[in-house]
From TrEMBL:
The gene is paaB. Gene3D superfamilies: Phenylacetic acid degradation B. It comes from Tersicoccus solisilvae. NCBIfam families: PA_CoA_Oxy2. The lineage of its organism: Bacteria, Bacillati, Actinomycetota, Actinomycetes, Micrococcales. This is Phenylacetate-CoA oxygenase subunit PaaB. Pfam families: PaaB.
Amino acid sequence: MSQPNSADEQDAREWPLWEVFVRPSRGLSHVHAGSLHAPDATMAVRNGRDLYTRRNEGTSVWVVPADAITASDPDAKGAFFESAAGKAYRHATYYTRSEGVKHL
C-alpha cells in the first residue's frame, strides 16, 4: 500500500464515507447525489451542500453513513424482484365484481 501524499489524504482515508441525498424542491423525493468522506454528520451535510447543490437548487440535504446502508445485490435482481410473478391476487384486476355490491 502506498503512503498518502499529504495529511489531507491521510485524514480522508480515516474519515467515514457518507452517501448524500438532495431534495431539489418541496414535494419531490430526495435523490442520491453522490458520496463523500467527512469526519462527522455535520461536516458531511455542509460538504454535501457545497458539492452537490448550486444556485439555490436544493431545499434539503440528507447524509447517511455508507456502512449503515444495506442494499440488494444488482446481479441477483431476477430472483429478488420476480417473487411477485404468479401472484395476480395482489392486483385489483384479479378480482371480479360481486353481484349486489354497490359503488365498486
